[in-house]
UniProtKB/TrEMBL annotation:
Protein name as catalogued: Tetraspanin
Source species taxonomy: Eukaryota, Metazoa, Chordata, Craniata, Vertebrata
The keyword Transmembrane helix is annotated on this UniProt entry: yes
Native source organism of the sequence: Carassius auratus (Goldfish)
SUPFAM superfamilies: Tetraspanin
Intracellular or extracellular location(s): Membrane
One cellular component term from this protein's GO annotations in UniProt: plasma membrane
Length: 256
């Protein structure tokens, strides 16, 4: 490989690793968001699910490792250090295999994940309002912003202990349909109605969440494929540069 090709490979690999470093920072930020968020479905699920907390720690670890890997890749590319390039290739291969295994696991465990989420949300709905204000605020926020009520439908709220044990007609304020009177209600807690028909959204949040995922399916898939292509490109460039460095070192060996 000519010196021009080696230089081009080296700087392309450096640019790639800079992108990979930013990608690792993004993953770590996403993990921190899952761990610290208190205004979305994530907050509702992670408070009652140890598995989601473990996932957040894994994402933080993977993001940190990716940042370190990007840094080592930059050093290996600029200074043409063969051992770093070889280590970089091996780590990228392991990450790619781990991502494929994770995708397969999520696909085959999707029914279990849906059931787990349903059970967690059901507990929140039944015990609302309880002691965990952060989780309940996140659930109220989700119902308001996604214009939904309950997990499968507003009937889920009929199992709520407060609604079952009172003679008054209460309904969750965060479920209130803005197109129906009254037009000014509280953002949380229970509201009273004089009718047996609650002025709430009929759609469950499960349907809205799945609809959001389906709508953004192309974006999510594109990001995943883009990451895989970048990783494969990094592996190819690192091996190409490593081979070139080896050939240069071989030609410099004195002949007798």
């Amino acid at each position: 490989m000519g010196k021009g090709c080696i230089a081009a490979t080296k700087y392309f690999l450096f640019l790639f690793n800079l992108i990979f470093f930013i990608f690792g920072a993004t993953i770590m930020g996403f993990g921190l968001w899952i761990l610290l968020d208190n205004q979305s479905l994530i907050a509702v699920l992670q408070d009652s699910s140890m598995g989601l907390k473990v996932v957040s720690y894994i994402l933080i670890g993977v993001g940190s490792f990716s940042m370190l890997l990007g840094f080592l890749g930059c050093l290996g590319a600029i200074y043409e250090i063969r051992c770093l390039l070889g280590l970089y290739f091996t780590c990228l291969l392991l990450i790619l295999l781990a991502q494929v295994a994770t995708a397969i696991l999520i696909y085959f465990q999707r029914d279990w994940l849906r059931k787990e989420a349903s059970e967690i949300v059901s507990k929140v709905v039944v015990n609302y309002p309880g002691q965990n204000k952060t989780t309940e605020q996140a659930w109220d926020y989700l119902q308001r912003t996604m214009q939904c009520c309950g997990w499968n439908g507003h009937e889920d709220w009929e199992a709520n202990l407060m609604i079952k044990n009172t003679s008054l007609d209460f309904y969750p304020c965060s479920c209130h349909n803005a197109s129906l009177p009254p037009h000014t209600v509280a953002d949380s807690g229970f509201c009273q109605t004089t009718s047996n028909d609650w002025p709430v959204y009929n759609t469950g949040c499960l349907g809205n969440v799945e609809s959001w995922l389906f709508t953004n399916y192309g974006i999510i898939l594109g990001i995943c494929l883009g990451v895989a292509v970048i990783e494969l490109l990094g592996m190819i460039l690192s091996m190409g540069l490593c081979k070139s460095v080896h050939q240069e070192d071989y030609t410099k060996v004195p002949r007798f």
